[in-house]
């Protein structure tokens, strides 16, 4: 049944995308958008720019591009801002990151050089391997949050932006578990005044965004906004939030392959995954406390997809090992090796080997763009709180309290597109043809 749709405010004026972290992912995103606007490149990997959506029956032949179906902000209307612990402008940072070729960067150098990062909220304890100088100071974490709120308001005013979104594209913080300070807005705000060590810098950014009415997407596995205090604040302030951890290389492969194995009722004895990565992310994850955060994100995927409690004969007790090794010569060109031990009819064993030589930031940049555009759409459509329909983009998707996350990428994509259909009052696609019952 088609719904009446929802009222969506038009995407008029400028959209400011505020990036936390101006490293490999952010500079690849900014340079890419500028290159696409100039016709130098195409937006490969971006669902908002290249994806289509089927409407109605297959025989109707209605398959518009998503960007022509729902009112998304145009790339020409995007303005970028950023915070970073290093003072390099986006051109310098992109050259240092080494993801994109110099020839491409030189073609958009003017736009990149004009993007200078604001001083960042940073505390060494949460990311021990990085040492920056472009850092805010304040007596309390609440004072730092207020400085971010001022940054947000100033950026919006100086750049003539009508709307803003914020995307965390900075490093993985040390592993944190939910504590009392995270369980209510009052406790969290008291913790900001008290400099509670359980409140990480990413939480301060999320708080500042939500208090400013700015949608917040978390591209790292940090706890960040996945706590009751900030989900409640987002609901109260009618602000969309989503996360966690961009789904790029190895985990992307798992969410494609594991549903296929499960659909054929093939059993799994073990899945061994190792990565070599040489960029700033690899350096940060070389610290055991930061790796723990990433490991939790990566390990959760197979358990939820395969449901060993439902299919104990196939998946109970399978071995799942994840390793990340920092290897500087590799730079941003990550390599993920997977050894998969499975079994089929009569218990006979089989193996799958994968060697995915991928480019981390090339895979992550279009995700960051899509999330910014979809989160802006969500806010204009009056949506608030956790945007579970955007799970498609994350390794460890945030969910409403009490719900397990959906990791199957094909179910995630169906949910995303059905949400867009619902917004516009179109029939949801269930693949259940009524002709079967005529």
- Largest sheet at a glance? 7 strands, parallel
Kindly report how far apart the N and C termini lie: 18 Å
The sequence of SSEs as H and E is: EHHHEHHHEHEHHEHEHEHHHEEEHEH
The order of strands across the largest sheet is 3-2-1-4-5-6-11
Tally the structural domains. Answer: 2
**Oligomerization category of the chains in this entry:** single chain
Helix content: 25-40%
CATH classification class of the largest domain: Alpha Beta
Total helix count? 16
Low-confidence stretches: none
Beta-strand level of the residues, as a percent range?
A: 15-25%
By DSSP, the count of extended strands is 11
CATH architecture label of the largest domain: 3-Layer(aba) Sandwich
Radius of gyration: 22 Å
What is the CATH superfamily of the largest domain? Answer: NAD(P)-binding Rossmann-like Domain
| Helix-strand category | alpha/beta
Mean pLDDT: 93
Give an overview in words.
The chain has a seven-stranded parallel sheet, with helices on both faces. A four-stranded mixed sheet has the order 8-7-9-10. The mean pLDDT is 93. The chain contains 16 helices and eleven strands. The chain folds into two domains: 14-246 and 362-423, Rossmann fold; 250-358, Dihydrodipicolinate Reductase, domain 2 (2-Layer Sandwich), CATH 3.30.360.10. A hairpin with a 5-residue loop joins strand 9 (333-343) and strand 10 (349-359). Helix 1 (24-37) packs across helix 4, helix 7 packs across helix 8 and helix 8 (185-193) crosses helix 10. With 438 residues, it is an alpha/beta fold. The chain is globular, with a radius of gyration of 22 Å. The protein starts with 13 loop residues before the first strand and ends in a 15-residue tail after the last helix.
